[in-house]
Write a structure and sequence with these properties.
The chain has 270 residues and is of the alpha+beta class. Helices cover 30% and strands 23% of the residues. The chain has a seven-stranded mixed β-sheet.
Length: 270
C-alpha cells in the first residue's frame, strides 16, 4: 500500500474496505484484518518513523516489524477501551519471551464501527516486564484446550507515561512528539532481566505517589507492592533505594538531601 501522507498525519481515519465485503466468518478475523490494514497504511514506527511491515500469518506474538529499524510489534485491537489490565496470550510463552528478551512492543488500538480509530497507544517492550504478567485461571477440563493458562498484563504497576499516545479521541499526535516520548525512556533497554523489572516497578511507584516532590518514606509506603511483585527478595527497602539511585543517575529524579527527591522534566515530560 502506497503512503502519500506526511509523517505524523493519517491518510484516512476510515477504511475503504467494509466488514460485509470481507470473506471471513468470525468477527475476530474481520477485526484483525481491519486493524492490521489501518495500522499498515496510517501509522509510523514510534522509534524511527519507519513504515510497519506485516509479518507472515500465524507468526507467534508478533504482528509487525518496522521496515527501517526492524523493531518488533504486537497489535491488540478492541471496540471497548483498554482498562488497567490487558488480556494477552499464553502465560508460559510470555514469561519465556521476556526472559529471553524476545517480547515485542505492544500496540493498543481502540476502534469503532464503521471502522475508525479512537485511541492508539504503544507500550514499549522495555516496560513489558515479568512482574506485570499475571496468570489467568487455567481452562476447565471440558474446554478444547483444557488446562491452558493465559495471562493478563497489569498496567497499574508501571508509570502511566509508559504508554505512548499516538491517537487521542480520533486525533493524531504529531510524529515528532511520539518519537520524543519513545526516546525519553529508551535507555531502559540496556537494563536486562529482573533488574529491568525493578526499575519499571520503581518508576511506577514514583508515578503512583502523584507529586513532583516525594520522600524516601513515600517510597517505603509501597513496600508491600514491591514485596508482592518480587516475592523472592528479602530486602525490598534496600532494593528500592538502589532503584532511586538509578533513576537519579538516568536523570528522571533529583536527590535533594535528607531523603527528599523531586521529579525532573525528563520524567514529567515523558
Amino acid at each position: 500500500m502506497e503512503r502519500n501522507h506526511l509523517p505524523g498525519q493519517f491518510a484516512s481515519q476510515s477504511m475503504s474496505i467494509q466488514l460485509t465485503e470481507l470473506d471471513y466468518k468470525s468477527a475476530s478475523q474481520r477485526a484483525r484484518v481491519l486493524t492490521e490494514s489501518w495500522l499498515a497504511v496510517n501509522a509510523l514506527c514510534p522509534a524511527c518513523g519507519g513504515a510497519y511491515v506485516k509479518t507472515p500469518n500465524n507468526t507467534k506474538v508478533l504482528d509487525f516489524n518496522c521496515k527501517s529499524c526492524t523493531r518488533p510489534f504486537e497489535l491488540k485491537g478492541s471496540k471497548t477501551k483498554f482498562g488497567k489490565k490487558v488480556v494477552d496470550g499464553a502465560y508460559g510463552s510470555m514469561i519465556a519471551s521476556i526472559r529471553e528478551g524476545r517480547q515485542p512492543n505492544l500496540i493498543l488500538m481502540n476502534y469503532r464501527l464503521p471502522f475508525s480509530v479512537l485511541d492508539l497507544f504503544i507500550l514499549p517492550r522495555r516496560f513489558i516486564v515479568e512482574p506485570m504478567v499475571v496468570a489467568r485461571t487455567p481452562l476447565s477440563k471440558n474446554a478444547r484446550r483444557a488446562g491452558w493458562v493465559g495471562c493478563n498484563l497489569d498496567l497499574e504497576i508501571i508509570p502511566k507515561s509508559a504508554l505512548i499516545h499516538c491517537v487521542i479521541n480520533g486525533a493524531p499526535v504529531p510524529q515528532e512528539n511520539i518519537q520524543r516520548s519513545w526516546a525519553a525512556t529508551e535507555e531502559l533497554e540496556s537494563i536486562e532481566g529482573a533488574e529491568r523489572g525493578w526499575i519499571a516497578v520503581a518508576l511506577g511507584i514514583v508515578d503512583s505517589i502523584g507529586s513532583g516532590f516525594f520522600s524516601i518514606d513515600d517510597i517505603y509506603a509501597y513496600e508491600s507492592r514491591a514485596s508482592r511483585l518480587f516475592p523472592n527478595n528479602k530486602n525490598v527497602k534496600a532494593k528500592l533505594r538502589q532503584q532511586l539511585q538509578r533513576l537519579r543517575d538516568m536523570g528522571f529524579i533529583e536527590f535533594h538531601g535528607n531523603g527528599a527527591y523531586a521529579l525532573t522534566n525528563k520524567f514529567i515530560g515523558n
